[in-house]
Amino acid sequence: MTAAVRLPAAGFLALLALTGCAIRPEATQSGLTLPGSFRDAAAQQPAQWPDPDWWRGFNAPELDRLMEEASQGAFDIAVAAARVRQADAQARIAGAALLPTVTGGADAARRQTGGGNRRTTSYDLSLSASYEVDFWGLNRNTAAAARLSAQASRFDAATVMLTTQASVANTYFDILTTREQLRVQEENLEAARRILTVIRSQVAAGVATGLDLAQQETVVAQQEAQLPSLRQSIAQSINALAVLVGRPPEAVDVLPGGLEALRVPAPSPGLPGELLARRPDVWSAEASLAAANADVAAARAALLPSITLSAQGGFSSLVLGTLLRPEAQFWSLASSVTQTIFDNGARQGRVELSRAQQEELVVEYRRAIVAALSDVEDALVALRETTAQEDLRREAASRAQRASDIAEAQLRAGTINLITLLNTQQTLYSARNQLVQARLQRLQAAVGLFRALGGGWQPGLAARF
Fold first, then answer.
1. So what's the pLDDT on residue 372?
2. Statement: the pTM of the whole predicted model exceeds 0.85
3. Assuming Cys at both sites, which of 65, 90, 122, 313 could form a disulfide with 331, CB separation 3.0 to 4.6 Å?
């Protein structure tokens, strides 16, 4: 049992000709002129793009494990993946209008007529199809807009994944840094207590005063008071890390490890034009703009008449046994043209709305490109300057340690006063903490450069969502 619509050859050619009149979306262009190179990149340095597992370059097995947990359980990544599935479903719904709608039905009815007992039974079996001829590209552009929006959602998911990875790395480095600060602070406290013991001996021998003793006791108390806040920061950072990887805080811990064991890889950015092909947020902005262009074309097509073809066929009989006989067959063909005469400007308003949205997304596309270039420039400067700063802080800490050792030895010999010793102590404590902070800033600058370069993401990797 089938029903079909046959068009003569001339009619088919006419349809093709009318289809060629379909309204097409505009091309997606930013209108920006890209620079030839990055201002803060090394001259003529070949591109060295990050790998998909870019964090492995830090030589931190614990970080590798955390990244694996985040890829499996991160809430933000799971939400982004669900949004991709929603967008895919919307694309399938929008694409359904490109094909005919076919329905089937079966009906049995029993009727009584007149005042007597005359009753009849009828049986119907039918199949119907309807199809909106997409002369002006309304359905095609609507489906294209939904498909491009689904692509944009995939690029958004890749951006979320990259952001989550960077957050995991930065939080992990922050934990290691705070633990290193705690270790340094405990060493500072031990040194202060050691000097306190010397001063107590000097007070007992009459070569130091009670004021000297009180001042050093104050130093010890100040150093000891900094320990609780560092321990609190470590615990809270681990809890924040648990949220990032999607696990309860009790199930997450970070094994002890030193900052000095970490390497700081430094990829090179290549050319600005190459960068834009590796940033999922730029691809998302481009896909969203292309979808908006298709929406404008669809809104313009909605101003034109709608043409629908329909066909119905089947069998109808008063006796079930004769339902499928040739004489029980029926069929019908129909076509309709519909044009809205007056809607108080609603459809024209939708065109203007779509155009305004498209203009907004042009600006957002340009913003994404400029922001990507700016991110790389910032990251290059940050990595270069934090590397230089760490080297200088290390030299300063070394010199402060040497000065502190000399001052402590001279204090034991009684050749300097306590004020000089207190100054050298404070300089050493400050230099140690600043070195740890400089190390963290360099690590985070490296993470920022990986993120600015799009991580190891490439357009083909969007299919994983």
1. 94
2. no
3. 313
